[in-house]
Amino acid sequence: MVAETFPRLQHRAALALLCGLGLPAAAQVDITDDSGHRLVLKGPAQRIVSLAPHVTEILFAAGAGDKVVGVVAYSDYPEAARKLPQVGGYTQIDLEAIAALRPDLVIGWPSGNRSAPLEHLRALGIPVYLNEPRSLDAVAHSLEQFGRLAGSEAPAQAAATAFRERRAALAARYRERPAVRTFYQIWDRPLMTVNDEHLIADVIRLCGGRNVFGQLSQLAPTIGVEAVLAADPEAIVASGMGEGRPEWLDQWKRWPQLEATRRDNLFFIPPERIQRHTPRILDGAQLLCEQLEQARARRGAISPAAPSGGA
Which InterPro entries does this one have (predicted)? Predict the structure, then answer.
């Protein structure tokens, strides 16, 4: 299908580039993406297509929401993103729909987008920037980079500064607290977790937790129940699919010998607050830090940290 429509796409891309010739000159944007690829734009992008929900959210947070002309499915935050044209899902990109939007920049996600469509877009002459934040520092960096790409540096810098300040406040309050052995459960069947290279693991560290599966080689490995029983986490934190606590979280009560079960440390955080690489991840971090503090308090000998404002 892609091969059949490729000449038509080339024609549309050429028209899009010609349409931009009459635009006023702007400062060149010379930038390197998260894959190490250098990108040079003649000026800040005016028509951006986002290929991941987290990219859409960061663009809006960076003050570039008015430049976004297309998104993928599940780009549902902020509310304005729901009204934008969709170009498929992040794993099934519609190349024709993208070309029809005449973008001067596409922002992709290497972990979620397939490489072939991204290469096709580059072959059409459409600049592609790849975003892959795997730490909290990288989320702030993404805000700044998107601000440069879209010419919204001032609001992007303000958002990045606010993010770093909130992160620092959480770190000051929780990072040095006694460690809590933590198992983060992404899903039930298959049973999945994260290693220490994952952004969620950075949140666990921020809260003074220790990821019991941090040393595994895969970013989001599949494990067995036996591995969880052997690791014997003090806290189990699950996400699921929506705002409701997943029923499978309480299945760990079938193993009363687990320390997390014995101490009632089975916690839930809505996935959009901790599994999206956006500023809202600090909302999830706040919840996780409070939950791990509950786990410490249930040891009996350690009292919770004193309340503090600003976090």
Answer: ABC_Transporter_SBP, ABC_transptr_periplasmic_BD, Vit_B12_bind_prot
Angle at CA of residue 173, ends 194 and 170, nearest 5°: 55
The CATH 3.40.50.1980 portion of the chain extends over 2-159, 176-297
User: What CATH code is assigned to 176-297?
Assistant: 3.40.50.1980
CA gap 223, 51 in Å, rounded: 29
**For the chain, what is the mean pLDDT?**
89
Q: Contact at 8 Å (CB) between 79 and 51?
A: no
Phi, psi of 50 (to 5 degrees): -100, 135
Model pTM score: 0.84
Whole-number pLDDT of residue 90: 86
Contact 228, 216 (CB under 8 A): no
Helix or strand holding residue 78 (H, E): none
Q: Find out if CATH 3.40.50.1980 is the number for domain 2-159.
A: yes
Non-local CB neighbours of 285 within 8 Å, separated by 6+ positions: 136, 167, 170, 203, 206, 207, 274
Tokens read off for 218: 């895969």
Nearest to 122 by CA among 65, 37, 44: 37
pLDDT of residue 26: 61
**What CA–CA distance (Å, rounded) separates 194 from 292?**
17
Neighbours of 160 (CB within 10 A): 22
Q: Which residues of the chain have pLDDT under 50?
A: 1-7, 9-11, 13-25, 301-311
